[in-house]
Amino acid sequence: MALPPVDTRLFFRPLSRDIVALLRTLPSDAWDRPTMAGAWRVRHVVAHLLDTALRRLSVDRDGEALRAPGRPIANERDLAAFINELNASWIRATERLSSRVLTDSYERASSELAELFERRALDGPALFAVSWAGESESAAWFDIGREFTEVWHHGAQIRDAVGGGPFRESRWLHAVLDIAVRVLPHAYRHTAARSGDAVQLDITGPSGGHWVLEFEAPDWTLRSGDAREPKTTVTMTDETAWRLFFNALPPKAAESLVRVSGDIALGRPLLSARSVVL
């Protein structure tokens, strides 16, 4: 049985309020602290949150056409290059903005984004397909949920950088993980197996859960629950899981924080799965 939709619509507003509340407490030097997001510092992550909220409002609510890329997007690599260029150009422009301007602007934009999604139906086609799951067309709930995972994991990057601790609501992270694991059938698409072979994913902690990835020729399918006789079992904490899926866990750290038992080779694609466009 396919996994059911995840409804994140009512999570956007309290999550963004939590992020804004933290930003208003930060001393000026905290805005230049490094984050796990590559070369981005705290101010850059905040600017990126503002950018994605404004972009979504402009295209989705206001019907503004997204700027066409300089060359056709033929594959995932082309899409990643286009998105990276959009992100970089915005970050350069916002270097001249103060932390107060960034915070005030994000507070307003995130509130309007929450209102947009709160009024949106879950069924029907998505505005943007969830490409990291291998989809060329997606349901609206998945697109909305993908946006929620973006806000959450960038907010978590900020909290990590400034020592803010985890978000107060464990159900937010559970929703993030329930959406992120849907990358797995796509991540395993080139993995050979026999019909009935199963990979058990156990994520521990208050936001965790149990999922089974099973090969039913010719495809891999994902469901919640436990496999009777998994060939491989992968176990990690909820904190480790979000860092893994959102490209914030170095390979050496993954080796020590993720436990793989059974057929080790069958667990490797899971360790490489990423729920973001790279």
Task: Describe the overall structure.
With 278 residues, this protein is α+β, with helices and mostly antiparallel strands. It folds into 2 domains: 9-168, Four Helix Bundle (Hemerythrin (Met), subunit A), CATH 1.20.120; 185-272, SCP2 sterol-binding domain (Nonspecific Lipid-transfer Protein, Chain A, 2-Layer Sandwich), CATH 3.30.1050.10. It has 10 helices and 5 strands, in the order H-H-H-H-H-H-H-E-E-E-E-H-H-E-H. The chain has helices spanning 12-23, 42-61, 76-94, 99-118, 140-162, 170-180, 184-187, 238-245, 251-257, 264-272; strands at residues 198-204, 209-216, 219-224, 232-237, 259-262. It has a 5-stranded mixed sheet. It is globular. It starts with 11 loop residues before the first helix and ends in a 6-residue tail after the last helix.
Average per-residue pLDDT, rounded, comes to 95
Under CATH, the topology of the largest domain is which? Four Helix Bundle (Hemerythrin (Met), subunit A)
- Number of E-type strands: 5
N-end to C-end Cα span: 30 Å
Q: Name the CATH class of the largest domain.
A: Mainly Alpha
- Order of strands, widest sheet: 3-2-1-4-5
Defining key terms:
Nonspecific Lipid-transfer Protein, Chain A; five-stranded mixed β-sheet; Four Helix Bundle (Hemerythrin (Met), subunit A); alpha+beta
Task: Write the SSE topology.
Elements: H1 12-23, H2 42-61, H3 76-94, H4 99-118, H5 140-162, H6 170-180, H7 184-187, E1 198-204, E2 209-216, E3 219-224, E4 232-237, H8 238-245, H9 251-257, E5 259-262, H10 264-272
Parallel strand pairs: 1-4
Antiparallel strand pairs: 1-2, 2-3, 4-5
